[in-house]
Amino acid sequence: MRNRKTIYWVLVILTSLAILLGGCGGSQADLVEGKTNVITSFYPLYDFASKIGGDRAHVINLVPAGVEPHDWSPKSKDISQINKADVFVYQGAGFEGWVDEVLGSMKPDSGVIVVEASHGLELLAGEQGHAEEGQSDEHDSDKEEAHGRVEAEEGHHHDHGSIDPHAWLSPPNAKVMAESIKNALLEADPDNKDYYEANYSKLAEDLDRLHQKYKETLSALPKKEIVVSHQAFGYLAHEYGLTQKAIMGLAPDGEPTAQDMKKISQFVRDNGIQYIFFEELVSDSLANTLAEDLKIETLVLNPLEGLTDKQLAAGEDYFSVMENNLNHLVKALK
User: Fold this and answer.
1) CATH code at 269?
2) Do 68 and 151 belong together in one domain?
3) Which runs of E-coded beta strand occur in the chain?
4) 87-103: per-residue pLDDT in tens?
5) Which whole-number Å values give the CA distances from 208 to 183, 204, 205, 296, 317, in the listed order?
6) Of 16, 17, 156, 326, which is most buried, counting CB atoms within 10 Å of its CB?
7) Can you give the residue range of the structural domain that contains 290?
8) Which of 162, 157, 325 is nearest to 236 (CA)?
9) Which of 43-47, 53-57, 131-135 bottoms out in mean pLDDT, i.e. has the lowest?
10) E-strand spans in 80-238?
């Protein structure tokens, strides 16, 4: 009987410990001693910080795998950890709707090095010059879109305002963003300066090679027009002489009007488009509906706002996704 009671209480204690530890979150979600703790607001910043920080930094991505960052906001534990980190990196340009409140709540003596990754970049306009919701705009029905111009359809309001924050899809922009992260690591941990500099140099070289490959490959293709599910590819289009037509605006949470869909359908017919691009973290129903109506196909074009658990488990990263994007662009534009 005594042995049974002992076993019972051991099981109770072990179960309680498991629940307590599980409630504290996984190892990646907690700050660690002995390393430079970096918290990033979404995947590309996490990937760049991880590559530069290597084994000297502990990098936490706030947005879980498989979650669209437009749909995410921090919990109290996330905010607490931001205040305890050595470095906090966010995109800016309106991408994180929650960040101003978090930054405003930070204690002046927190010592956190804050990096706005888009700072210093030449940012593109989003919806400037378009009619407000419910208004018609007869003038732009015949207006050509310039190469790389970001053009949302009418009838939507977006949290991003008039600035497109998706700058990381241009490898030269990604290089500048990575340098800002590197500089923050140097400030937080000057003893490992040479290590961070070497890792950044390797990352910068890889981004230069990716840029050159995109430039040479896309310039040789006859078509330059793409139709995408949401307006995330303005910087990629601007960098490589493409024109994007978006079903939705800068945030993938709107519903296009019948007039919007009519214009997109006409754009597809006028430009001989054979593929509509969709994303893995948002519904593909609109892209599929449009493709079925027009008797064309769909392909993934990943805006790299986040990766799925499956992609992370397979070892995918910024570069592998960008390579896959390029392969799909070649298929659509040849």
Assistant:
1) 3.40.50.1980
2) no
3) 36-40, 57-61, 87-90, 113-116, 124-125, 163-164, 225-228, 243-246, 275-278, 297-300
4) 999 999 999 999 999 99
5) 19, 6, 5, 34, 16
6) 156
7) 144-164+219-333
8) 325
9) 131-135
10) 87-90, 113-116, 124-125, 163-164, 225-228
